[in-house]
Design goal:
The complex is a heterodimer of chains A (122) and B (163).
Chain A: H1 2-27, H2 31-60, H3 67-94
Helix pairs in contact in A: 1-2, 2-3
Chain B: H1 2-5, H2 9-23, H3 28-44, H4 58-85, E1 94-99, H5 105-117, E2 121-126, E3 132-137, H6 143-161
Antiparallel strand pairs in B: 1-3, 2-3
Classes of the chains: A mainly alpha (122), B mainly alpha (163).
Chain lengths: 122, 163
């Protein structure tokens, strides 16, 4: 009984966060803001389902499952990288250097400026 | 000899463990197959991993992961609250530039990933010489505080892990 309540709790929590993340996609104003919704609110959405799944297999079926940990690992690796790509593509497509804060160092931001030694290596 | 066969021992070990977790069953055959992947994949991808990052103080790695996990949970609630309860007009999004002290590519990658997963920030771009990172903040009235928090909470710890 207690186990079922616990598993249901995590499932409902995950559903709520998934919904909020998707709602954020409609509600927020520009692309950069919308990027925040799927990278964060949905992490707990997926995480909740995975915790519930692990608990189910551990406590109800009595076997240890590692797939959930792997999904978490892959999610944590891919989500920030994908978000970084989307952000960079957005900046490239629709922003100008003057819209961004100035870079402190001698080189500008990577989308607009070449890295040091860009032309040394063939 | 050893370094040519196993250019990245931890990478090989990780691959083997991930393979065993994928098949979800530890048998001799699976261990051998996982070990095979652990040796062959790093060999094939060696050109993409020229450097060999050294990790100092492995205990700090666990501490860092615990902190980041806690922050991810907090971040989820914060972002959900902003999405649900703030009017669009009162959300002040800002770009923040964070100058970096860490230089190793691995450390910068982990920092950028951490920034994206944690409260209200997404890492958007590096400067061309990787000396600073551009961060987009969903809602803040105090960009300096955000920058100081990233530098103090995450970068300081990464600096101890990656020399």
């Amino acid at each position: 009984m207690f186990v079922e309540v616990l598993i249901s709790f995590f499932l409902v929590l995950a559903g709520v966060f998934g919904l909020v993340g998707s709602f954020g996609l409609i509600k927020l104003r520009d692309s950069m803001q919308r990027l925040h919704a799927p990278t964060k609110a949905t992490t707990l959405g997926v995480g909740g389902v995975l915790i519930a799944s692990m608990l189910y297999f551990l406590l109800v079926k009595g076997q240890l499952s590692f797939h959930e940990l792997l999904i978490t690992l892959f999610l944590f690796i891919t989500a920030p990288v994908a978000a970084h790509f989307v952000a960079k593509a957005y900046i490239q497509a629709s922003m100008k250097p003057k819209d961004l804060p100035k870079c402190d160092g001698p080189y500008g931001w990577a989308v607009f400026d070449d890295p040091p030694n860009a032309f040394d290596q063939d | 000899m050893m370094s040519r066969l196993l250019p990245h021992p931890f990478f090989s070990l990780t691959l083997t463990v991930v393979w065993l977790m994928l098949v979800n069953k530890v048998t001799v055959g699976n261990v051998l197959l996982g070990g095979f992947f652990g040796v062959v994949v790093p060999m094939i991808t060696a050109p993409y991993w020229p450097g060999r990052p050294t990790v100092r103080k492995p205990v700090h790695v666990a501490g860092y992961m615990a902190i980041v996990l806690c922050d991810i949970v907090v971040a989820n609630f914060q972002v959900a609250a902003i999405i649900l309860f703030k009017r669009n007009k009162t959300i002040h999004s800002q770009w923040v530039e964070v100058p970096l002290d860490i230089t190793s590519p691995e450390a910068i990658t982990i920092l950028a990933g951490t920034i994206t997963m944690t409260p209200g920030t997404v890492s958007a771009m590096l400067s061309a010489d990787s000396a600073s990172i551009l961060v987009h903040c969903l809602h803040t009235d105090d960009p300096e505080a955000v920058r100081d928090q990233i530098k103090h909470r995450y970068e300081r710890r990464l600096k101890e892990i990656f020399p």
